[in-house]
Amino acid sequence: MQVSPGPVHSLNLSVNYPFALADGYSTVKAMSLVTDDYGNPVGNVPVYFFIDGIPAGPWMTNSSGIASLSIGPYNSPHMANITADTSGIDPSSSNKSATTTFLIKNNLFLLRYPSAAVPINSNVSVVAVWYYNLADGIPAAGVPLKFTAYDPDQSVIGEYTGITDANGMARFDFQISSMPGTNKITVNNNMITAGPLKSVVIEGILKDVSSIVLSSSPASPIRADGETIYKLGILALDKDGDPVKYKYLTVVKMVT
Fold first, then answer.
1. pTM higher than 0.90, yes or no?
2. CA dist., res. 227 & res. 149, Å (int)
3. Hey, what domains does the chain have and what are their CATH numbers?
């Protein structure tokens, strides 16, 4: 059954993305939904948009009660303040303002702790720091970021989604692979761009062998009877007594 909408009652403004890249071509869509007092969409209504106080429009609502406007693109950091209005709405039941922030990708930095090369199996941290305005040190707060860590074979070994805090920071703690080689960490936000925003690598290195412990099975005494087969166990340890993996050891059989 088709419903004929009543007089205009409310207007609700929203944006499809709260953040976008200031890359000269990315845009955000501002959408204004106009309804009657029963929530039915009202079409063919002029909506007046203002971007940072500058008028744009009017734009007419469609049959779904929506009038939309593209915001951007921008080549530099910009926080766009958008308002929308039309006649007959009740301000108490309307949301007439929205914001969207355009950020520079090169203002996003990835920091590695404790360093860029650590022993395998180490616990490490990657901190993302994003600045809205780098020159003035103004952080980009409230930006969702997804971290993904890959081992040297490109298998996922850790994931985390966080939001930049008041200082523009989000932190990802994880353990690097037990394999020596390059661990790659990517940071992305699918609302901003389809691929990674930035990536960084942490090298997993082998520990140094400080001592070697030998054992035999069966245990000593070893009988030189020409019949008994013995299995030699070799355990390589670092200076802290922890096992050292993936080290090549040379075993020399000496006959006296």
1. no
2. 52
3. 10-103 (2.60.40.10), 105-205 (2.60.40.1930), 208-256 (no CATH)
